[in-house]
């Protein structure tokens, strides 16, 4: 049994007070009466994500992002200009191609962000 498991609520309050530096007075709230926040509406489920077969190849998805701005927009332009870009490749194939071309770190960051978007479909 650890020291925490042996501790009483008063011991824990003293330790929290010591850590927070409130000079011997427990300044915390009543954690026994904690009520969780209401669920965030933005995090509701809107449906299933597509399987890899339904989603299609990452490279093809990437070059279709014609309205992209910033780093992703630059990545899309570079992908369209590269005749050896792996259209049927996954994110790792795209990273490998960027490495072969000597791309800077920002392009790899753009691939990371694009991969998250692609996986969310």
Question: How would you describe this structure to a colleague?
Answer:
- By secondary structure, the chain is mainly alpha-helical.
- It has a domain at about 55-120: DNA polymerase, domain 1 (Orthogonal Bundle), CATH 1.10.150.
- About 55% of the residues lie in helices and about 0% in strands.
- The longest helix has 15 residues, at about 105-120.
- The radius of gyration is 25 Å and the shape is elongated.
- The relative contact order is 0.11.
Write the layout of secondary structure elements.
Layout: H1 3-6, H2 9-20, H3 52-55, H4 58-63, H5 70-81, H6 91-101, H7 105-119
Helix pairs in contact: 5-7, 6-7
Short recap of the structure:
This protein has 7 helices and no strands. The chain is mainly α.
For the termini, the CA-CA separation is: 47 Å
**Helix/strand/pairing category:** mainly alpha
Instruction: Characterize the main sheet.
Output: none
Known CATH architecture of the domain at 57-119: Orthogonal Bundle
Mean pLDDT: 80
Q: Determine Rg (CA atoms, Å).
A: 25 Å
Count of individual helical segments: 7
Characteristic key phrases:
0% strand
């Amino acid at each position: 049994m650890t020291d925490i498991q042996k501790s009483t609520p008063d011991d824990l309050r003293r330790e929290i007070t010591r850590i927070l530096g409130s000079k011997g007075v427990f300044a915390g709230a009543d954690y026994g009466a904690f009520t969780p926040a209401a669920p965030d509406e933005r995090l509701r489920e809107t449906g299933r994500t597509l399987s890899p077969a339904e989603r299609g190849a990452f490279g093809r998805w990437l070059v279709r992002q014609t309205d992209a701005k910033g780093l992703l927009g630059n990545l899309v332009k570079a992908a369209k200009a590269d005749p050896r870009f792996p259209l049927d490749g996954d994110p790792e194939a795209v990273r490998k191609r960027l490495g072969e071309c000597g791309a800077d770190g920002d392009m790899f960051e753009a691939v990371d962000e694009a991969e998250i978007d692609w996986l969310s479909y």
